[in-house]
Amino acid sequence: MCFDPAATPPAIPADVLPQPSAVRSQALTLTTEDGASLTAYSSVPDAPREVAVVVLPDVRGLFDYYKRLADRLASAGHHAVAIDYFARTEASTDRGPDFEFMPHVRQLTVEQVLADARVAATHLREVHGIRDV
User: Fold this and answer.
1) CA–CA separation, 83 and 62 (whole Å)
2) pTM metric for this prediction
3) Which CATH class is domain 23-91+99-128?
4) Under 8 Å between Cβ of 9 and 33
5) End-to-end alpha-carbon separation of the chain, Å?
6) Three-point CA angle 121, 96, 98, nearest 5°
7) How far does CA 8 lie from the centroid of its chain?
8) How many CB atoms are located within 10 Å of the residue 48 CB?
9) All structural domains of the chain with their residue ranges
10) What is the pLDDT of residues 2-32, one digit of tens each?
11) Which of 2, 3, 117, 128 has the highest local Cβ count within 10 Å?
Protein backbone atom coordinates (compact mmCIF):
# COMPACT_ATOMS: atom_id res chain seq x y z
CA MET A 1 0.00 0.00 0.00
CA CYS A 2 1.69 3.16 -1.15
CA PHE A 3 -0.93 5.68 0.01
CA ASP A 4 -3.90 6.08 2.31
CA PRO A 5 -7.19 4.67 0.95
CA ALA A 6 -8.76 8.13 1.26
CA ALA A 7 -5.99 9.76 -0.83
CA THR A 8 -6.78 11.71 -3.97
CA PRO A 9 -4.69 11.64 -7.17
CA PRO A 10 -2.64 14.81 -7.63
CA ALA A 11 -4.11 17.62 -9.67
CA ILE A 12 -2.77 18.23 -13.14
CA PRO A 13 -0.83 21.53 -13.04
CA ALA A 14 -2.55 24.45 -14.78
CA ASP A 15 0.52 25.13 -16.93
CA VAL A 16 0.24 21.58 -18.32
CA LEU A 17 -3.53 21.56 -18.67
CA PRO A 18 -5.02 25.06 -18.58
CA GLN A 19 -8.55 23.90 -19.54
CA PRO A 20 -9.60 20.45 -18.22
CA SER A 21 -12.04 18.42 -20.30
CA ALA A 22 -15.48 17.53 -18.99
CA VAL A 23 -15.67 13.81 -18.15
CA ARG A 24 -18.35 11.11 -18.36
CA SER A 25 -17.70 8.08 -16.15
CA GLN A 26 -19.43 4.77 -15.60
CA ALA A 27 -19.01 1.26 -14.26
CA LEU A 28 -18.29 -1.16 -17.06
CA THR A 29 -18.38 -4.94 -17.47
CA LEU A 30 -16.13 -6.45 -20.13
CA THR A 31 -15.79 -10.10 -21.18
CA THR A 32 -12.24 -11.45 -21.13
CA GLU A 33 -10.68 -13.88 -23.62
CA ASP A 34 -11.37 -16.75 -21.19
CA GLY A 35 -15.04 -15.76 -20.81
CA ALA A 36 -14.78 -14.13 -17.37
CA SER A 37 -16.69 -10.95 -16.56
CA LEU A 38 -14.28 -8.12 -15.83
CA THR A 39 -15.52 -5.23 -13.74
CA ALA A 40 -13.97 -1.94 -14.78
CA TYR A 41 -14.46 1.81 -14.54
CA SER A 42 -14.49 3.92 -17.69
CA SER A 43 -13.83 7.66 -17.93
CA VAL A 44 -14.42 9.38 -21.25
CA PRO A 45 -13.32 12.97 -21.96
CA ASP A 46 -15.48 15.37 -23.94
CA ALA A 47 -12.30 16.65 -25.63
CA PRO A 48 -10.30 13.46 -26.31
CA ARG A 49 -6.66 13.21 -27.28
CA GLU A 50 -5.12 10.43 -29.35
CA VAL A 51 -3.76 8.34 -26.46
CA ALA A 52 -5.79 6.26 -23.98
CA VAL A 53 -4.75 4.65 -20.70
CA VAL A 54 -5.48 1.31 -19.03
CA VAL A 55 -5.18 1.89 -15.28
CA LEU A 56 -3.76 -1.06 -13.33
CA PRO A 57 -4.56 -0.64 -9.62
CA ASP A 58 -2.22 -1.61 -6.82
CA VAL A 59 -2.50 -4.87 -4.89
CA ARG A 60 -5.74 -3.73 -3.19
CA GLY A 61 -7.67 -3.79 -6.45
CA LEU A 62 -10.05 -1.27 -7.98
CA PHE A 63 -11.15 1.20 -5.35
CA ASP A 64 -12.09 4.88 -5.34
CA TYR A 65 -8.55 6.24 -5.73
CA TYR A 66 -8.20 4.50 -9.10
CA LYS A 67 -11.63 5.63 -10.24
CA ARG A 68 -10.63 9.20 -9.40
CA LEU A 69 -7.31 8.65 -11.19
CA ALA A 70 -9.17 7.51 -14.33
CA ASP A 71 -11.35 10.63 -14.07
CA ARG A 72 -8.24 12.81 -13.68
CA LEU A 73 -6.65 11.24 -16.78
CA ALA A 74 -9.88 11.80 -18.72
CA SER A 75 -9.95 15.44 -17.61
CA ALA A 76 -6.56 15.69 -19.35
CA GLY A 77 -8.18 14.32 -22.52
CA HIS A 78 -7.23 10.64 -22.23
CA HIS A 79 -9.88 7.93 -22.31
CA ALA A 80 -9.15 5.73 -19.29
CA VAL A 81 -10.32 2.30 -18.13
CA ALA A 82 -9.37 1.10 -14.65
CA ILE A 83 -9.70 -2.67 -14.27
CA ASP A 84 -10.66 -4.84 -11.29
CA TYR A 85 -8.18 -7.68 -10.84
CA PHE A 86 -10.52 -9.48 -8.47
CA ALA A 87 -13.65 -9.69 -10.64
CA ARG A 88 -13.14 -13.46 -11.06
CA THR A 89 -12.95 -14.14 -7.31
CA GLU A 90 -15.07 -11.44 -5.65
CA ALA A 91 -18.51 -10.43 -6.90
CA SER A 92 -18.72 -7.39 -4.64
CA THR A 93 -17.19 -4.22 -6.00
CA ASP A 94 -16.77 -2.72 -2.50
CA ARG A 95 -13.04 -2.19 -2.12
CA GLY A 96 -13.08 -0.08 1.03
CA PRO A 97 -10.23 0.05 3.55
CA ASP A 98 -11.41 -3.17 5.24
CA PHE A 99 -11.42 -5.25 2.04
CA GLU A 100 -9.38 -8.44 2.52
CA PHE A 101 -7.44 -8.42 -0.73
CA MET A 102 -4.70 -11.00 -0.08
CA PRO A 103 -6.90 -14.11 -0.55
CA HIS A 104 -7.78 -12.72 -4.00
CA VAL A 105 -4.19 -11.77 -4.83
CA ARG A 106 -3.15 -15.38 -4.19
CA GLN A 107 -5.64 -16.55 -6.83
CA LEU A 108 -4.38 -14.19 -9.55
CA THR A 109 -2.11 -15.30 -12.33
CA VAL A 110 0.05 -13.16 -14.57
CA GLU A 111 -1.88 -14.54 -17.54
CA GLN A 112 -5.20 -13.34 -16.06
CA VAL A 113 -3.88 -9.84 -15.39
CA LEU A 114 -2.48 -9.63 -18.93
CA ALA A 115 -5.79 -10.88 -20.39
CA ASP A 116 -7.68 -8.29 -18.35
CA ALA A 117 -5.39 -5.49 -19.53
CA ARG A 118 -5.78 -6.68 -23.15
CA VAL A 119 -9.57 -6.65 -23.03
CA ALA A 120 -9.54 -3.12 -21.57
CA ALA A 121 -7.16 -1.97 -24.32
CA THR A 122 -9.33 -3.66 -26.96
CA HIS A 123 -12.39 -1.87 -25.55
CA LEU A 124 -10.62 1.49 -25.84
CA ARG A 125 -9.58 0.75 -29.42
CA GLU A 126 -12.87 -0.70 -30.68
CA VAL A 127 -15.45 1.38 -28.81
CA HIS A 128 -13.63 4.71 -28.74
CA GLY A 129 -11.45 4.39 -31.84
CA ILE A 130 -8.22 5.03 -29.95
CA ARG A 131 -5.19 3.60 -31.68
CA ASP A 132 -2.56 4.23 -29.01
CA VAL A 133 -3.32 2.60 -25.66
Assistant:
1) 6
2) 0.89
3) alpha beta
4) no
5) 26
6) 130
7) 15
8) 16
9) 23-91+99-128
10) 677 788 898 888 887 778 889 999 999 999 9
11) 117
